[in-house]
Design a protein that fits this description.
- The protein is mostly beta strands and 409 residues long.
- 6% of the residues lie in helices and 39% in strands.
- The strands form 7 sheets. It has a 4-stranded antiparallel beta sheet with strand order 3-4-5-6, with no helix packed on it. A 4-stranded antiparallel beta sheet has the order 7-8-9-10, with no helix packed on it.
- Strand 5 and strand 6 form a beta hairpin.
- The two termini are 40 Å apart.
């Protein structure tokens, strides 16, 4: 091994899973230096560095509604920086989200993130009755961003998802824009997906298609997970709505037994597996309060990707219970999704992250059954606030020649 060049060692280490890479750092000083070298880090697996989230910065009492594009609240973007903790491989960085200069006069909404890339939507403020919007792909690690072409739809009744897997390829990403339609003559019914626009970085354009799921789908937030070339979306109908990145294969998968219909749980990706986290011991107190004492963690079976094999529509065929946690909260009984909610899973370690009503982010080690407070949220806790995980992507943005790439300095 002593005869191997640093370039060759870096090439070998780039194929090592993250957990094994942490062990390699302890083998000898030269290996440790190669793993920490900024030149070689672009090839080597990176770990979780934090979470981006949005917070209110101004309300309708202090601002002219005309200056807010018709919205009552403006939200800023902050980062819960976890890069200094033991499971990270990079020094403390205080990352920020690079956006085009035009966003300074626009409303900005975080939509999704995957493997170091972030999807945001900006609304150009104007006196038009309906503001125009654009999607932006950003890479905080390199300071790059790309303003995507206009999609066909500019309204608010839509949800967007990013499809990107740096482990499979850093040369391509897709964006899904799901159009939402409110049911007619149904009071209080949530919107259902009525169509989809799909953007491909290879073609630099959007295509429109109908949805081909076998049921009407109402999406939940956070929306979903991109894995094995498929987008997995949590839906309120107690299932996953699955579609491939090109919009050719559509399927629904039932979730494990769901006790509380008012909260659909959390879906995430860790160590190459899709995880579903919820509580299955909910007790009803009063008319509106559903209290829990445990949290269950399930893993999705790999057999579901054998599309040509007929499987029973039974959740037991699709999900395996990994953990049933009883000490995640100081309270013996808690309202899952409100008193506390799962906001992320570690991409490599056996760990989940929880936000609670004390404005704290808590890391829960599934192996040791231990909780550690890792961050104090500076802004008031909101049960429905979404957090978007940040794993540094040190390679350039995957773009085709049709898209201009300005660089943030």
């Amino acid at each position: 091994m002593s005869r191997l060049t640093h370039d060759l060692l870096a090439e070998i280490l780039s194929r090592v899973p993250y957990k094994s890479l942490c062990v390699c750092k302890c083998v000898c000083p030269p290996w440790r230096d190669i793993i920490a070298d900024p030149v070689y880090r672009k090839k080597i697996a990176q770990s979780l560095a934090g979470f981006f989230y949005q917070h209110e910065v101004v309300d309708d009492a202090t601002s002219d509604p005309a200056d807010l594009c018709g919205f009552s609240v403006v939200e800023g973007i902050s980062c819960a920086d976890l890069s200094a903790f033991p499971w990270a491989t990079i020094p403390r960085t205080f990352p920020r989200l690079p956006l085009p200069p035009v966003s300074m006069d626009c409303l900005v909404s975080l939509q999704d993130s995957w493997d170091g890339l972030f999807l945001t939507r900006i609304w150009v403020c104007s006196r038009d009755p309906e503001p125009r919007s654009r999607y932006v792909i950003s890479n905080p690690a390199t300071g790059e961003y790309a303003l995507l072409p206009h999609s066909v739809y500019y309204g608010e009744d839509c949800s967007a998802c990013l499809c990107f897997d740096s482990g499979a390829s850093t040369e391509e990403f897709h964006v899904f824009q799901f159009l939402l339609e409110w049911p007619h003559n149904t009071c209080g019914a949530p919107p259902v997906v009525s169509g989809v626009h799909i953007y491909s970085s290879k073609t630099g354009s959007w295509v429109s298609t109908d949805t081909l799921w076998d049921v009407e789908v109402t999406l939940c937030a956070p929306l979903g997970v991109f894995h094995k070339g498929y987008l997995h979306l949590l839906m309120e109908q107690s299932g996953l709505a699955v579609v491939d990145k090109e919009g050719r294969t559509w399927r629904t998968i039932p979730l494990p037994k769901l006790i509380d219909p008012g909260f659909s749980g959390f879906i995430g990706k860790s160590a190459g597996q899709v995880l579903y986290i919820n509580s299955d011991d909910c007790l009803v107190y009063g008319s509106n309060q559903n209290l829990c004492s445990t949290i269950s963690v399930y893993v999705l079976s790999v057999e579901v990707y054998q599309w040509n094999v007929s499987l029973l529509d039974d959740e037991c065929m699709h999900w395996k219970l990994l953990h049933k946690l009883s000490n995640v909260s100081p309270k013996k009984m808690f309202e899952f999704g409100f008193d506390l909610r799962v906001i992320g899973v570690h991409p490599h370690a056996n760990m989940i992250f929880i936000a609670d009503s004390n404005n704290q982010l808590v890391a829960y080690d599934l192996d040791r059954c231990e909780s550690t407070i890792v961050y104090h949220i500076e802004h008031k806790y909101r049960p429905y606030r979404d957090f978007f995980s940040y794993v540094p992507l040190l390679s350039r943005l995957p773009l085709d020649g049709a898209i201009e790439l300005p660089t943030s300095h």
